[in-house]
Amino acid sequence: MNKALVGAALLFLGVSAHAADIAASAKLYQTYCASCHGVELQGAEGPSLTDAKWIHGEPTKANLVKIISKGVPDKGMPAWAGVLTKEQIAQVADYVSPKSAAARKAAKPAAAANPLAGLKLPKGFSISIYADKVESAREMAVSPSGIVYVGSRKPGKVYALIDENKDGVVDRIVTVAEGLDKPNGVALLNGDLYVGEISRIIKFADIDRTYASKPSYKVIKDDLPKEGWHGEKYIKAGPDGKLYVPIGAPCNVCNKEDEAYSKIWRMNPDGSNWELVARGVRNTVGFNWHPETKELWFTDNGRDEMGDNTPSCELNVAPKLGMHFGFPYCHGGVVPDPDFAKGRTCEEFTPPVAKLGPHVAPLGMAFYTGTAFPQAYRNQLFVAEHGSWNRANKIGYQVRLITLYGNQVVSDTAFIDGFLQGEEVSGRPVDIAVLADGSMLVSDDHANRIYRITYKP
Ligand code: HEC
Q1: Is the peptide bond before 328 cis (omega within 30 degrees of 0)?
Q2: How far is residue 265 CA from its own chain's centroid?
Q3: How far apart are CA 116 and CA 129, in angstroms?
Q4: CA torsion angle 146 163 195 177 (round to 10)
Q5: Which atom belonging to ligand 1 lies closest to the Cα atom of 29?
Q6: 82 alpha carbon to ligand 1 midpoint, in Å?
Q7: Is 185 a residue whose pLDDT tops 50?
Q8: Which member of 7, 200, 211, 306 has the lowest number of beta carbons within 10 Å of its beta carbon?
Q9: Hey, whose CA ends up nearest to atom 43 of ligand 1?
Q10: C-alpha–C-alpha distance, residues 157 and 152, integer Å
Q11: Residue 12 to residue 98: CA distance in whole angstroms
Q12: Mean pLDDT to the nearest integer, 24-32
């Protein structure tokens, strides 16, 4: 082998070894640091690590290792010694060093380059970003003119998403209202937008005409419980012209049967005629009516602290008023509660039509009523799984397709998968809506965006 060839071989080895290093340290950075310093080090809660300003002196290796190890706890930078090994700290120090700028650029993490790269859908379907930077995107309501209203939690805002030229990408995000108390729920009825806060339902009249001018609202109901635990509302107008409002159990598990909790209620649009729809419901954050039977279907989140594998979250049907779905006595149709079951049996209660799995956190759901997907999808059910928060190995974090024959579940398969890679999470689906053109929207309060799913044979 001549000298040049040896040199080329060494260079090649050197480069690929370095690329592997960068990939590994990029992964560490994305896992532990990106939430505060940004996916591309551009800064967020923490300072930018790419600008020329260094609060803590020249970014030498020794200096970086020191600050990363010790942190600046009173300024919000955690100490990483003890969390990461010495080698890992050296790796992230190299990664954030200005010297690695070129290597970082060359090895751009797939997730940063294309946040949808890891997502998998059945053949013929594609997913794109409908709207980005929709902070804490939760329930969605689509108006007849195609405006998508979106509720949120922490930011206290309600947004209107406007796709001006109807190209499937939102052009303007308008903040309709702010300063609200976790306005998770949004529903349209007779041209008015109803918003569900923790303890109130408010109404913005004639919303499509007023959304852009900071419309005022009228309080329709203000005597709902003030508890934050499971207090976030998912609301929707039923085919009966009434507004459905659930009140979750203010606990992991507790018996509040004689109070308003752990039930689904409904009322007239003016707040009158408050009546019971279903009881024994721990916390539903998603429901809809079957397009043909007009029966109410809803998801319910199973209790915690009975282990990683039990009980299952539920998919339920309530064909009539007043049915009892088991909480707090019986979970998932088959698991008696260790503390509350006393003398009650699971047979007393309406079992779920499907057990969706433990801790998967099923939230919004929609029947596919469009015509753009293949015929087999017509009137089938899509469920958004927000994903587990306290399970040893994460589960959920996907959109599932549940096919039905009458009220019987025939199959339950992944429709959008890949938000969870190993234990890393890139998205948490919250709600599902179908646009007039037959495409489907999915909100995500982790990635703060709305996806659009289309089909091409
Ligand atoms: C919870 C948020 C948070 C996380 C997570 C975090 N940082 Fe920080 N970091 C900060 C804040 C805030 C500062 C600024 C501290 C100050 O003002 O002194 C900072 C400062 C720094 C600095 C010094 C910047 C300068 O200008 O001197 C470095 C380097 C750094 N962080 C690297 C990291 C690395 C590497 C990780 C992951 C292992 C990480 N940080 C994770 C919040 C965070």
Answers
A1: yes
A2: 24
A3: 8
A4: -140
A5: 37
A6: 16
A7: yes
A8: 7
A9: 77
A10: 6
A11: 23
A12: 86
Q: Ligand 1 centroid to 24 CA: how many Å?
A: 19
pLDDT interval class at 109 (50, 70, 90): low
Q: Residue 183, preceding bond cis, omega within 30 degrees?
A: no
Quick one: tokens of 327? 């909480």
Q: Which of 27, 29, 36, 63 to mutate to test the pocket of ligand 1 (most atoms within 8 A of CB)?
A: 36
Mean pLDDT of 159-170: 96
Residue 191 phi, psi (nearest 5): 85, -5
Write down the residue that tokens 């052009």 correspond to: 171
The string of pLDDT tens digits covering residues 42-88 is: 887 789 999 889 999 999 999 999 999 999 989 889 999 998 999 99
CB contact burial 303-324 (16+ within 10 A = b; e otherwise):
beebeeeebbbbbbbbeeeebb
- Reference 444, options 18, 5, 4, 115; nearest CA is 115
Tokens of 104: 């970082």
21-33 as b/e, with b when 16 or more CB fall inside 10 Å?
bbeebbbbbbebb
Residue range 256-274: mean pLDDT, rounded: 97
Quick: pLDDT tens for 231-254: 999 999 999 999 999 999 999 999
Residues 6+ apart with CB under 8 A from 278: 263, 264, 296, 298, 316, 318, 321, 322, 323, 324, 325
C-alpha–C-alpha distance, residues 36 and 72, integer Å: 13
Within 6 Å (CB) of ligand 1, which residues are found? Answer: 32-33, 35-37, 45-47, 49, 54-56, 64, 67-68, 72, 75-78, 80, 92, 96
pLDDT in tens, 357-374: 999 999 999 999 999 999
Minimum CA distance residue for ligand 1 atom 7: 77
Choose between 299 and 11: higher pLDDT.
299
Q: Give 427 Cα–ligand 1 centroid separation in angstroms.
A: 23
In whole angstroms, what is the distance from residue 443 CA to residue 433 CA? Answer: 9
Q: Which amino acid is at 438?
A: G
